[in-house]
UniProtKB/TrEMBL annotation:
Pathway: Protein modification; protein glycosylation. PANTHER family: PROTEIN O-GLCNAC TRANSFERASE, UDP-N-ACETYLGLUCOSAMINE--PEPTIDE N-ACETYLGLUCOSAMINYLTRANSFERASE SPINDLY-RELATED. Residues 397-585 form the O-GlcNAc transferase C-terminal domain. Keywords: Glycosyltransferase, Repeat, TPR repeat, Transferase. This is Glycosyltransferase. GO terms for molecular function: glycosyltransferase activity. InterPro entries: Glycosyltr_41/O-GlcNAc_trsf, OGT/SEC/SPY_C.
Length: 605
């Protein structure tokens, strides 16, 4: 009953995320479920949560229901629920109160990690999804810092106790829950060095392989010194048309094939939408090897290839999927990865992280990595979009269609939904406030991240931010997902005047779209690879004047460009000219030459 009601609500909100009637029905269902939980005796809580009720509750939590603030009429009720799980009650709160509170406030804010031994196995998935899973939305400024601190405590606690109690059945269940639900993506949106957290995460993944009868470590025999080609494997989860595929293609497409044999390795999962790209990728390798979903079988197949080196072309520092667990194993004599992971992997079997000197700080870059850092002579990432660039737009989007006057400055931002923290959102709205009449166009729904977005809380937060800063919320337009990347570029070319990048986790794939259509971009350069991707691309184009060193400089630069049409015109001309070269981040041949050098330096010499 509950799941059916929720499914109907989510279907309607999927069609129109701004539908207030269905949003209120969902919040009414949340309130009903919270009261049911509080009224449930301890002996009946487990069967209730294992029923349809529990599935509906978990679906709500998984979709980010706690991002919706409490309604005015339920504030007293919510205050009482939170009183039961915070302060002096935090360490001995009743489980039904914890579950009810989680529908309104994420447990990472109030649930101490020391309470974990008292959490039953059936409740672990809820706790781990809420506390250590990807966060849908941070409601207020400062929450990302609180999240970082509390997740750090949880990871420290889990790391110490799971390693110390590795034979315990309970702690092994805890480890299973960690592997299934933990994700470090939301930590990317902090300014902190994540090396230590990633290392502890990796050690837990590595321990799981040992406990469940896998062999993550392996000793290869010495490489034959007969002058033969370097046998180089490229391991990809799939060959679907998405950012990781486009960023991995240049790694192998133009290597020196007289010196390097390329073995492309991917899971045997086929989709119609990837057939064309699969053919394109396969044509740039000596052979294609398919592996099953099973970890142990895949390890055996890859080790039998006797590779000199392997490149792993996926993000290894986000979730803990079986593919990520596969990559924790020793699969070749030398194992490398690069910018698909915006932070270090932490795995002891990953030997080298290949970045670019334009995307790393001058001092202290190695401090962010457990791997040996090797830099190419350029940015961290290069893209080959195959035949994607040849597609024509399916629709023409004009200012009139978006309700935007022709004579105002339009700022555009394509940063993903999850990257839009309260701090970043406020920065963008401050730019609107300083540029009279300007508009902000957001298109944050990249389907590479997820197929569904719980967008109501974002609308509410933007409305509140605009009200607080004295800005009419109608000056912000949010565009639903577009059918194709060609449509995004066409929209930017006809509507946008200035593109605003995200921070601390800067854009790279999303930055290419405005640059391809000559839209000046404003970026902020931070102190790590994930906060220097965009600035590295602009330095590659010799456009340092579009790089800000801090938030205030970012605002000043954006406002200056918004108010100076002639300067925008000159910059647009420069950008268009430099994008025709192409820049290194779109030059597969440059990347191939650099990767050839890297491989020869590391293996042959």
């Amino acid at each position: 009953m509950y799941s059916q009601r929720l499914e109907e609500i989510l279907t309607q909100l999927g069609r129109n995320p701004a539908d207030l009637i269905w949003a209120r029905r969902m919040l009414g269902l949340r309130h009903e479920m919270a009261r049911t939980l509080l009224a449930t005796p301890p002996a009946r809580l487990e069967p209730l949560y294992k029923s349809d009720f529990g599935e509906a509750c978990f679906t709500m939590l998984n979709g980010g229901i706690s991002g919706y603030p409490a309604l005015d009429q339920e504030r007293e009720f919510v205050a009482e629920v939170m009183r039961q799980v915070t302060g002096d009650n935090a360490n001995h709160a009743a489980l039904n109160a914890v579950l009810a509170a989680s529908l309104y406030e994420n447990p990472y804010k109030y649930l101490p990690c020391e309470t974990l031994p008292g959490i039953p196995v059936w409740m672990l998935r809820t706790v781990f999804r809420c506390v250590l899973g990807q966060q849908w939305l941070f409601r207020e400024k400062g929450e990302i810092e609180l999240y970082y601190r509390n997740v750090s405590r949880w990871v420290d606690y889990l790391h110490a106790n799971i390693l110390a109690n590795r034979s315990s059945a309970h702690w092994q269940e805890v480890l299973r829950a960690f592997l299934q639900y933990a994700s470090f993506v939301s930590l990317y949106f902090s300014w902190h060095n994540l090396r230590d957290l990633c290392r502890k995460r990796a050690e837990l993944i590595e321990l799981a392989q040992e406990l469940w009868d896998a062999r993550p470590d392996f000793q290869f025999g010495p490489r034959a010194r007969d002058g033969g080609r370097i046998r180089f494997g490229v391991l990809m989860q799939d060959l679907d048309p998405r950012s990781e595929t486009f960023a991995t293609l240049p790694v192998f497409a133009h290597l020196d094939r007289d010196a390097i044999e390329v073995v492309l390795i991917t899971r045997a999962i086929r989709d119609k939408k990837s057939a064309e790209l699969e053919k394109y990728c396969s044509a740039r390798a000596d052979r294609l090897v398919e592996i099953p979903a099973d970890i142990k079988a895949s390890v055996e197949i890859i080790r039998a290839l006797d590779l000199d080196a392997i490149w792993i072309g996926t993000n290894l520092a986000a979730g803990t999927s079986t593919f990520v667990q596969l990559c924790a194993h020793r699969l070749a004599r030398l194992q490398l990865t690069g910018g698909c992971s915006p932070v270090t992997t932490g795995f002891h079997n990953l030997d080298v992280f290949v970045s670019g000197h334009l995307s790393e700080p001058v001092k202290g870059a190695q401090e962010h990595y457990t791997e040996k850092l090797v830099c190419m002579d350029g940015p961290v990432l290069c893209f080959d979009f195959g035949q994607q660039n040849e597609r024509a737009a399916t629709q023409n989007i004009s200012r009139a269609m978006l309700g935007i006057p022709e004579d105002v400055t339009v700022y555009a931002a394509g940063a993903n939904f999850f990257k839009i923290t309260p701090e970043l959102e406020e920065t963008w709205i401050r730019i609107l406030a300083a540029t009279p009449g300007s508009r902000l166009l957001l298109y944050p729904f990249n389907l590479n991240w997820t197929n569904y977005y719980f967008v109501g809380p974002l609308f509410l937060r933007i409305t509140a931010t605009c009200k607080r800063l004295g800005i009419d919320v109608n000056r912000v337009a949010i565009k639903p997902p577009l059918p194709d990347i060609a449509d995004v570029r066409a929209m930017l070319g006809s509507v946008a005047d200035v593109y605003l990048d995200s921070f601390p986790h800067s854009g790279m794939t999303s930055l290419i779209d405005p640059l391809l259509v000559g839209v000046p971009t404003v970026v902020l350069e931070g102190n790590s690879q994930r906060s220097r991707m965009a600035s590295g691309a602009l330095r590659d184009m010799d456009l340092p004047q579009l790089i800000a060193s801090d938030e205030e400089a970012f605002i000043r630069l954006a406002v200056e460009l918004g108010q100076d049409r002639e300067k925008r015109r000159q910059l647009a001309k420069e950008i268009s000219q430099r994008m025709t070269k192409p820049p290194k981040f779109l030059d597969s041949k440059w990347c191939g030459a650099e990767m050839t050098r890297v491989l020869k330096d590391l293996i042959v010499q």
